[in-house]
Write a structure and sequence with these properties.
The chain is an alpha/beta fold. It contains 13 helices and nine strands.
Length: 274
């Protein structure tokens, strides 16, 4: 059983909704990332989603685009991100790590070399935003050979036919985009999310994590009442952008850790009410 499968099995057995915080690797500077990952876990993260810096992160809103730019200013690339996960694994062999990124850096590295290096570093899953299901077969086969889950996106506009295609390829979990737009958009409609979520649930037994537009404790609780896991990104990356670079890594994580802790506490109130 993979780390992701094990984590979702634990969550289901405990009647808990998972919390999946997203940060951009190397933001606001490379020295903060591993400390931030450990702080996220210590404050309630069930899975860490780590963004791979890219010059054209098309699915991302302004906050996360700026996070990518800050990381790129320090020259952080895919190999650096993999090395960060390897360092994280020196003291955490349990928490699942998902890389969220784009095709170009992986293709430039070479699919097989990437998968082998990622596997050795302890990366559990990859979400390649701009690689459609029609083009996944070769890469997916390589990921399978290295026991790396292939996490795919489903949006409110995805047809039932295409959902069938996606769920046939996805492993680990499916990332359900909660709204029509980019990350950080401010028009979350929980009733619409619930309806679309049930449409997706009817086609798969894989865990479903809901993200995009979930910025605060209230939104986390509203979506957490529906989903297997909630993904939070823009709110955390905004805080990353506000970090004073003169602070140590230990000091820099305080505000982000506090927000994650509050979100975990909010989800826990749902669990205690059941």
């Amino acid at each position: 059983m993979s780390r992701i499968e094990n984590r979702f099995a634990q969550l289901k057995a405990a009647g808990r909704c998972g919390l999946v915080p997203y940060i951009v690797a190397g933001d606001p500077a490379p020295g903060y990332t591993v400390a931030m990952m450990h702080a996220l876990v210590a404050n309630g993260a069930d899975i860490i989603e780590l963004g791979v810096p890219f010059s054209d992160p098309m699915a991302e809103g302004p906050a996360i685009q700026l996070g990518h730019e800050r990381a790129l200013m320090h020259g952080v690339g895919l190999r650096d991100v993999i090395a960060m996960v390897g360092e994280f694994r020196e003291t955490d062999s349990v928490t699942p790590v998902l890389l969220m990124g784009y095709t170009n850096p992986i293709e430039a590295m070479g699919y097989s070399h990437f998968a082998n290096t990622a596997s050795v570093a302890g990366i559990d899953a990859v979400l390649t935003v701009d690689m459609p299901p029609e083009e996944l077969e070769g890469f997916d086969r390589i990921l399978r050979d290295h026991d790396i889950d292939n996490v795919l996106l489903v949006s409110p506009t995805t047809s039932d036919e295409r959902i069938t295609q996606i769920v046939g390829l996805a492993r680990g979990f499916i990332y359900f985009v909660s709204l029509k737009g980019v990350t950080g958009a401010g028009h979350l409609d929980v009733e619409a999310v619930a309806a679309d979520y049930q449409r997706l649930r009817a086609q798969t037994q894989l865990p479903l994590a809901v993200g995009f537009g979930i910025k605060d404790v209230a939104a986390v609780k509203a979506v957490g009442a529906i989903a297997d896991a909630v993904v939070v990104g823009s709110a955390l990356v905004e805080l990353m952008g506000a970090i004073d670079r003169d602070l140590s890594a230990t000091e820099a994580v305080i505000d982000i850790a506090r927000l994650v802790s509050e979100m975990r506490a909010g989800l826990d109130t749902l669990e205690s009410a059941e």
